[in-house]
Amino acid sequence: MDEEYDVIVLGTGLKECILSGLLSVDGLKVLHMDRNDYYGGASTSLNLTQLWKRFRGEETPPENLGSSREFNVDMIPKV
């Protein structure tokens, strides 16, 4: 990883992603980071393992719920 960047963007929400993209298209060297292990900030969609970790604090959900890849839960309600 390089150690010099023109811009560091923290977070992977919609605003941060747009900003990062625009700056990189302008030729700036951008480091885009997030503290979460998923992408998308508040508007993310989580699989079962990520959802379980976020609300239950445990690393793995019970096996009887099925495969984690079978779940995709949006964190922002949509109509």
From TrEMBL:
Signal peptide: none
InterPro entries found in the cross-reference section: FAD/NAD-bd_sf, GDP_dissociation_inhibitor
Pfam family, one: GDI
Lineage top rank: taxon: Eukaryota
UniProt record similarity statement: Belongs to the Rab GDI family.
Name of the featured protein: Guanosine nucleotide diphosphate dissociation inhibitor
Annotated source species: Stylosanthes scabra
